[in-house]
Amino acid sequence: MQELTHYIDGAHVKGTSGRFADVFNPATGEVQAKVPLANAQEMDHAVQIALKAQPAWAATNPQRRARVMMKFVDLLHRDMDKLAEALSREHGKTLPDAAGDVQRGLEVVEYCIGAPQLLKGEFTDGAGPGIDMYSMRQPLGVSAGITPFNFPAMIPMWMFAPAIVCGNAFILKPSERDPSVPLMLAELIEEAGLPKGILQVINGDKEAVDAILDHDVIQSVGFVGSTPIAEYIYGRGCSNGKRVQCFGGAKNHMIIMPDADMDQAADALIGAGYGAAGERCMAISVAVPVGEKTADALIEKLIPRIDALKVGPYTGGKDVDYGPVVTAAAKANILRLVETGVEQGAELVVDGRDFSLQGYEDGFFVGPHLFDRVTKDMDIYKHEIFGPVLSVVRANDYEEALGLAMDHEMGNGTAIFTRDGDAARDFANRVNVGMIGVNVPIPVPLAYHTFGGWKKSVFGDLNQHGPDAFKFYTRTKTVTARWPSGIKQGGEFNFKPMD
Ligand code: NAD
User: Fold this and answer.
1) Are 12 and 6 in contact (CB under 8 A)?
2) pTM value?
3) Atom of ligand 1 nearest to the CA of 412
């Protein structure tokens, strides 16, 4: 049995807590490795190393820090296949999807190459007689990030690349479900020239997370994961005086207007609802057709497409549409919610409950499900299922459809499919959700924009990546400088404008 490690001070280090978690191959259900779960002493050891290493890194000019990112991009391309394979083996997603996971992280690293420009600061020449004023963006010191299982390459890179290029040291606590790729990324960025101790990976669970939240040295915490944990981390981190941003769960609605191209809408729903087995925070889990005729037409288009879906292991070749879910517990939770849907009166149009894959009976595969006539009071509507289950909620008109997206407590992403520019514009303006797609089902913003939901999908002020990340990982210091000629008249006792 492979025993995974932490990555501390430039080396793989065995866990000393004596606690481990199983890492599965979700396709076979086998335990393929065990990952150490750090305790507070191990966390503190890494933090002290980060604290020592950070000042020299912060004093390295931004151009040189950016060159590490440039080289890191090259190495990510070089090792893309290796990273994707390791990712699929622990997560279960298909190889092209795993490469996409790496790619979307890599694009944020590319954006970070612009650090010299992004960190330039502001300068006012002659803010008063003989007075100059300038603002600098300085790193925070030691930052930490806690990441979910569903994007084990992308989300760590969304956090550590901007944190590091801003001059911080970073402690990454990845998901204990798929920790191998984060460890590989730490090795790779050091090969790109990052000094030891600037990026460290500490594996663990709640104990390691609490050690981060309570550590005096750690200045900021980024979190991505489920909403209850996001809320907990935000509260405890903030009350300990840290800068915290937490991104939580989702329930993304896609509105289908009667004038939409129904084939296009159905194709979009298949990819956005079932891709990655529905384990995406930007997955569409609720389809809202407007009008009975639209709903009937949509269901008719969806059924054959769902029947044609190929579910299989990542080793199953190019035709596999989606793989297993991450753990047996995740599978059980999805099937439990499906049962509540049936019990509470939703119409299970496509029933994936008996799905089994020959040769992979112990894998965590879940067949695709489609519910029709779902209502707001049902558990399958209220809760994030995070599986290959699409719910259709029929709306009588546009306002009712908009109201559904508005009233749901989650507000990560949403989409509208229509040919009507006016409806699309109205939707984008009024809906209280952070990321909107117009005829685009998964509107994940590119690296140079920012990513973040609204409502219970987020706790904190700034979004991930893009310009917001450079604000989150730095603090502003503003200097007002007057040189001696300005004080020849003696002291000034009144607080007054600089005229
Ligand atoms: P999770 O909340 O179970 O775990 C996320 C992280 O928190 C992991 O590192 C885990 O070790 C840690 N953790 C788990 N329980 C904890 C506890 N009690 N105390 C402290 N730390 C704890 O989430 P997950 O299952 O890994 O990921 C799926 C969730 O993440 C979904 O809800 C999904 O919508 C969400 N997600 C959100 C975004 C976004 O940007 N909004 C992106 C990806 C995933």
Assistant:
1) yes
2) 0.96
3) 41
